[in-house]
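Below is how a single chain appears once it has passed through the pipeline. First comes the sequence as given, then the structure the pipeline wrote out for it. We keep one example in the README because the format questions we get most often are answered faster by looking than by reading.
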Amino acid sequence: MPASVPRPPPPLLRHGLRFCGHCLGCFFWWTLWLGLGLLLGFQIYTATTKQMPVPPFLLRSLEQQLSNSELSAQLGKTSFDPTGQIVIQDLRLSLPRFAEPVAQVRSLYIQLDPLALLTGRVQADALRANGLSLYIPALLSGSGARELLIENAELALSTREHALEFTEFSAQSAQLGNLALSIQGRVDPRPLIRTKATETLPAAELFARYYPLLCRRLGEAAQWTAGLHPSTRIDIALSPDDVAGAFAEITITGNGYDAPKHASPPFSLGAFRVTSSPLPLHSTAPVPLQIDLALRALDLELPPLPPLPTRVAPSALPPHFALRQNSPIDRQARVLGLRGTLRGLVDFAQMRVRPQALAVAAAELRFAGASPRDISLQAELDGWPRIRSAALLQIGGAPLDLDARFTLGEPDAQLHASGRLPPALLDLASEYTSTDLSRFVRLGAAPEIDLELRIAGGRLAALTGRFDARAVWAHGLTLDQIGGRVTFSGKRFEAPQAYAAIGSNYAHGSYTQDLGTRDYRFLLSGQLNPPDISLWFHDWWAQFWQNFDLSKNAPTASVDVRGRWGEPQHSRVFVYADSHSPTIEGAALDQVRTRIYIKPDYYHAMELSIRRGTQSANGWFLRRNDPATRQLAREDFDFSSTLDMPTLGALSGPEVQAAIAPFYFAEPVSVKARGFIAAAGARHIDLHGSTKGDFTFYDFPLNGLNFTAMIDDDMLLVDSLSAGLAEGLVSGRVLLQGTGEAQTLGFDLSLAQGKFYKWTGIVSDYLARRRGEEPPPNVEKNTNVTIDLDLSAEGRPGDTLSFMGSGNMELKGRGLGEIHIFGLLSELLNFTALHFNRLLTSFSIEGDKIVFPEVHITGSNSAITASGHYALDRGQLDFRARINPFQESRSILKTIAGLMLTPISNVLEVRLTGPLDNPKWNFLHFSSNPATAPNNPNAASNNAAAPAPEENPPQAEVPETSETGSNTQIDAANVHHNTGADY
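Resulting structure:
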């Protein structure tokens, strides 16, 4: 079955529909033309009048929306402009809490939304404000009066969907130091407004809500922005966000900035650029902030350095040192090429920034003559205003790391410094103390430090750490190294672990000083040659060590030095020293060990030990000098010594040298000495000594000395003397007193069991040397004869011919007749077999001669009597002797024979003359010399004064005797027998 075909409408219906369509078309076109005509008339009116009144309902709607936005408006003249915008002249906006208008607009152009307008609503698509001025209300201004914030700003806003777009905002703020402000970008106002009502203007509501808070913060910032140089501007770039409203990126550029006078510290900036990270306009929680800074130059005046921790009266300071509580240092500093980053949090509720960290880098810092370079600074600001910072910089090529903790506005701080300090910082310290510190210390190299400082109340309160310095010039000396740990608290400075080195000298220990009184103390151990540091002390130190040569090996020592800087009279030095191979007063020693206490003009060696080979000395001494003359006032001592006399004298000083000068010892003497020496020759010394070796006293030879002596002023008393002489023993007393030409030597000595041949040899040698002659040869003979001698005399030491005294002498022993004092008489008498074995005599010393008034020589059966003298100045004998055969015999026959031979004895009386070692003799009764003839009445008187015989005297003539009846001549030169003439 075919598909059904639709049936056409009836004709009447078609005609009716066509008519209705025609009517509607006519209505539309007539309405369109009427509208166009009305519009043309409105445009002609607007073009001719350039304005038209705003319908009242539009004004009421606009005022209602402003009121809903918490703004009250005072509208001036309103009209439509030819572009279809509402134009409001002289618009004033006020906030409910403030009486004065906060904004004034010379001309406001509002572009309305036509579709909204057809529904009876006023909705602005865009607005433009010319001549916009913003004011800080009196309640929010620092002056208490309304202040102009922005003047003649240009603002252009448009609405796109839910966003406000700042197509233009440029302003010049007089309140903010002629700061130019520019805003570009879009804002989503929904997160920023509190109401959801549609009858509001979002831009007005944002203004009403945030403007008071903005004024408050800008008022606080106004005091800081006044110093901005012209052409400084802020550019704000906005990016919309449906949560934060918008993110704002702020850029500030300028040619310079001068901080206000009240800024601490005052500073100024060169050309700069500051850029912030994007910041949300709305956030319920603090949001991160980063600010980047690029700065060409920063000039600032640093705060005054903390005053010195001491308050010292000017009268207590040395004349070359002056402290100032207010630092005179030029505190101007300049930073070049600075770049930095500040990180923190922004609290939008309070519109405040809480800094967290700061990182700064600078190319150079110029301050007080120093130019640190490559500076980097890291600061932790979490506890703002408490700050912790760390800096690294290069000063003169020396790296220095600084770490500081302080609170802004407070005078307390902590600083940690490690690295190297440049020598140039001493110049800064010199300015700080108003003293040229280069006069006292100079740094040849940058010292290494690791110091912790604490400043309290603006003053240095504490310091701890360590330092190590090389090539330090200190008061005339260059220390190769010095360092240690240091501490400071209040007025006390300590270096509990200090060390120093000067050449081969080194020391370690501690140092303390009271900065208020300048009292100091060193406690050091090490190796030190004391003269090497003489420049640190006054001349008393060099004077004490001037006779010490410690150059071979510096002593190892422990030293306690205390005193007061600038007042050397308070110096005290306690030393324990051990020195090897020193030379003291010219005496070379192997070792010296001592404990000594030294202060100006006072030297107390509480312990002194000296070693030289097998010799040694131990004891103590206390020396005081006159402070005015620096000469000896008194020296007390107590010593035991086995040193040789030259060494002992050199170590003891000129006073002791003078006392022991008469002595010479071939071997060291064991000596104990105790006493004192003082000025003006005053002294008292108790001595005891002994030696087994040879020695001389004023060149007189002795040996095996044992003595006890006392020196009292100019008197030397040896009151217990025992010494060896000629294989015998000398004992007695010796007294030396006086000085110079008035000095006298007295002695009372006894010689027991001495060998006579040695005695004569010693005396001959001694007297020959005194006369300047060559000593005679010593030939040993007649060794059986001994001598006992008692001798007392007094005279001038060194002048043999000045002595006066007396003595007794006894010679005994077999062979006495053969001794040389009898010359050839012994040969003539040998036929009688007279054996002499004893000589007994007394004598007197009378200056230039020794007088023997009577000499008895006896044997077993004979005797010789003699008298005469010995001339000391000429070394000549002059004796008369008579032989008495059998005088000593106990036999009756020998006695009778002796009586019978008495005439012969008278005839055989002889005279001995000549030197002791080679005497000459002749018979008195047969001499051709009338001075010796028996019939010469002057013979006896002239006997003692007879002139010395010639070196080769004439032969004595003997007359003829009745027994021979012939002439007999005895030649003394030919009748010779070696009887010990060399003695």
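Confidence is low (pLDDT under 50) at residues 309-327, 821-833, 927-983.

See the next section for the split statistics.
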